[in-house]
Write a structure and sequence with these properties.
It is a single chain. This protein is mostly helical. The protein has 7 helices and 5 strands; from the N terminus they run ββααβααββααα. The protein is globular and about 50 Å long.
Length: about 180
């Protein structure tokens, strides 16, 4: 198998993205272990760091990160047990849980950012500044495209543009002709 294909033909973009993502997660998991967190936990913490000092609801995190509710619940429980976040009932809606960073969770932001920055610099060391800029733009476009395909729900920090001319949903009970 060569770098540009497999024995059965060219590698699809989805396969390249998937394999690259998995390799990145494994490498970052190893580096983030020194901070006591995983790549998945870091992804959740990033959302808290962006929102801080405001509280974030579990439902909003699930939507923003495109995760299943059960997976998000597991991640949040682990972060709470680790003392990085704390949850409380929303005083306006008792069914809703609001989560905030603890002081320990806030203190982790800079060391984790430094770890990720160092790893990213190493990961992209063979790319010129121009290539890095192009890669970032292409990946942002790919993320936007993927978010459109996922029920038109935007991914955190990426504005989802509505496709022009999209029909609105018919009222309940209406029949199509």
């Amino acid at each position: 198998m060569g770098p540009r294909g497999t024995l059965s033909g060219p590698v699809r973009i989805s396969g390249l993205v998937s394999r690259t993502t998995r390799m990145m997660q494994v490498a970052l998991d190893r580096r983030l272990a020194r901070h006591g967190i995983s790549f998945s936990q870091m992804a959740v913490l990033v959302r808290f760091w962006e929102a801080s000092p405001k509280a974030v609801s579990q439902a909003q995190l699930t939507t923003d990160l495109g995760m299943e509710r059960s997976s998000m619940s597991t991640l949040l429980a682990t972060l709470e047990r680790s003392g990085l976040i704390v949850g409380q009932e929303d005083p306006d809606d008792r069914r809703r849980r609001l989560l905030t960073l603890t002081p320990m969770g806030r203190r982790l932001e800079r060391p984790v950012a430094d770890t990720v920055d160092g790893w990213e610099e190493e990961f992209l060391s063979g790319f010129s500044a121009t290539s890095r800029k192009q890669l970032r733009g292409l990946l942002e476009d790919l993320l936007l495209s993927a978010s459109r395909l996922r029920d038109n729900r935007p991914v955190a920090r990426v504005p989802a543009a509505r496709p022009a001319g999209r029909a609105t949903a018919a009222p309940a009970g209406a029949r199509r002709r």
